[in-house]
Amino acid sequence: MYRLAEAGAKGDRDALQRTMDLLATEAAEQGRHSQARRLTGLLAGDKPRRASSAAGRVGSRGLPESVRDLLIDRMPRRTLGDMILPAEIVADVREVIQEQEETALLRANSLEPRHAILLVGPPGNGKTTLAEAIATELGLPFLTVRYDGVVDSYLGETAARIRRIIDHAAAAPCVLFFDEFDAIGKERGDIHETGEIKRVVNSLLVQLDSLPSHCVVVCATNHPELLDRAVWRRFQLRIELPLPDRDAVVEMYRRLARTVRGSGFTQEKYVDCMLGRSMSEIEQFNLDVKRRLVLSRGSMTASEVALIVLSRWCRQQDSLVENERVDARKADRSNSTRAKARKAHPREKAADPTQADLPGTS
């Protein structure tokens, strides 16, 4: 990395190319073939990508003034290999990455790569991480929309700000990430929403249609039922990220077991406590064990630390389950009351786009 920085500072293109070639070779040997291809062709200009010279940039400092309060621009670091995902989801994402990398071939055959992805599922199961991983695999800047800077109570201002975001993203290749997309992509038929939100959705649909295929837009939502029907059609790939299944939890145990060894901490205990939790919670548990182990300064074995943390988490789980049971009983009573009201005043049920078998849904 020092040689790369030195060559860049001196403007020595030959040294820069040699260093880039070494990095590309290293990436290929480690199985990072996508990154290797990008490094090989970077100086030759095979694939025009947005300049990423600010390797240490944080927040919005590298953005122009017009969108500095609307976007967060940061270097993506998570990869698909960091994640534990169902094989079919990995395959779907790999296809989109391949299409983006082979844009020239597709265009030679009058085709465009897919570039609009919708991620749905419960919170904490990797939607943001997957969006970042896509940016990492493509070697592109990762731009996250800041809703605190976008949404405004003044008529038309929100739509204008979205337009500025789209214009900036369209200027050069990037991954544009809308988290909690239902905040601006809500169903226009919702009687509880204001006219401003409906105008924002109209503008959003037009702006999404205008995005060129070199801008990969990834939208995430915990509430797909709130999205406008027309919004769904804008996404060429729709992926549902479910709670981790048993195989995923077992893999998380194995990753932790590389650090935590010893009797008393079994896979069965781990799975029994973690199954049903989000991936984010499981990751936090693993980190909690590692933190306590470091802070114990050798006074406890790894398995002793793990058992203490596991016991605490299981107690918390029991408390949450009891609270959920209370909430469920309240919900049952409320649903019963509404059901009686519907029988007294029947009306046609609105279609829910999330319940249909949509093409491209994973």
UniProtKB/TrEMBL annotation:
SUPFAM superfamilies: P-loop containing nucleoside triphosphate hydrolases
Classification lineage: Bacteria, Pseudomonadati, Pseudomonadota, Alphaproteobacteria, Hyphomicrobiales
UniProt-recorded Gene Ontology molecular function terms: ATP binding; ATP hydrolysis activity
Keyword terms of this UniProt record: ATP-binding, Nucleotide-binding
Listed name of the protein: AAA family ATPase
Natural source organism: Methylorubrum populi
Sequence segments annotated as region (Disordered): 27-61, 324-362
UniProt entry tagged with the keyword Iron-sulfur: no
Record's compositionally biased regions (Basic and acidic residues): 324-335
Segments forming domain AAA+ ATPase: 113-245
